Amino acid sequence: MASRRPAAPQPAAPKFQLSPDAARRGIERLNERINELRAFDVNTLPSGNSPALTALSAAIQDTLGRCLGEDTSAYRRFASAATLQLRVIMVSDNYPQRHHYVEAARQNIEQSIVLLQEAQRVLREDLADAQHEVLSISESAAPEAPALSQRVFVVHGHDEGARETVARFLEKIGFEPIILHEQASQNRTVIEKIEAYHDVGFAVVLLTPDDEGSVKGGKPEPRARQNVLLELGYFMGRLGRGNVCALKRGEVEIPSDFAGVVWVAMDAGNGWKQTLGQELQAAGHEVDWNKVMRS
């Protein structure tokens, strides 16, 4: 009797064509999934499948479908980012136990973050290609655009160590950090000093737990200083969300009104440096990645 040949794999759907705005939204949504993965505490997992991980997997799958198109070749490359739980093939008296579920989830989350960051890179390249095509079409008619300013405003609270770390990193990769208290006052108010730097093209806002606050009668929780939140809102309005990156250090409340801005955990492993470099590049700045990796 003749054996049956396995069915040929279905061809991938055509590449998803996103508008520049849709690509930017996709990058932001992928960043939200990455932050959710980083915040997930695997030590809370039960011995068995976790409903919380199942929900997170579904969110990742939905985001990939929206950003890359369902069943496209790009989607297939990154689809395993939604695999977060332990896959049990064989069961014995000693397997699986709770620590097996925990360790598998930890490894799967790390792999998922890497894949989602790579998916972000793909969207950034698509965005860059789309912008290049638009520029190529209008290049002959449009005047040459001025070079982007290398000045980056650094908004900070009381954490001087975080401020200096970010400022020195920006200097090492070729940018000029603008720190307000280092500039001459000239009898100007704070907002007038900020407005004087009209050529600043990007802002880094440090959200550090310098104050405490709560709803009336509630338990005080760590939060950023109010002037930092005011300046975050100011730069979002002036520069646009894509030109603002918030670095969060420690446990600090993120106001819901600012949920649309990219924020990055300022981790001890310096992963924030690569992410900040990516955000600067996505905003149109040239970034020397050799300098980023050496800093």
List keywords for this structure.
alpha/beta, Rossmann fold, globular, 2 domains
Describe it.
With 295 residues, the protein is an alpha/beta fold. Helices cover 46% and strands 10% of the residues. The strands form two sheets. It has a five-stranded parallel sheet, with helices on both faces. The protein has a two-stranded antiparallel sheet with strand order 4-5. Helix 1 packs antiparallel against helix 4. The model has no long low-confidence stretch (mean pLDDT 81).
Question: What is the topology?
Answer:
Layout: H1 20-39, H2 51-68, H3 73-78, H4 98-138, E1 151-155, H5 160-172, E2 176-179, H6 190-196, E3 202-207, E4 211-213, E5 221-223, H7 226-239, E6 244-248, E7 262-265, H8 271-282, H9 289-294
Parallel strand pairs: 1-2, 1-3, 3-6, 6-7
Antiparallel strand pairs: 4-5
What is the gist of this entry?
By secondary structure, this protein is α/β, with parallel strands linked by helices. The chain has helices at residues 20-39, 51-68, 73-78, 98-138, 160-172, 190-196, 226-239, 271-282, 289-294; strands at residues 151-155, 176-179, 202-207, 211-213, 221-223, 244-248, 262-265.
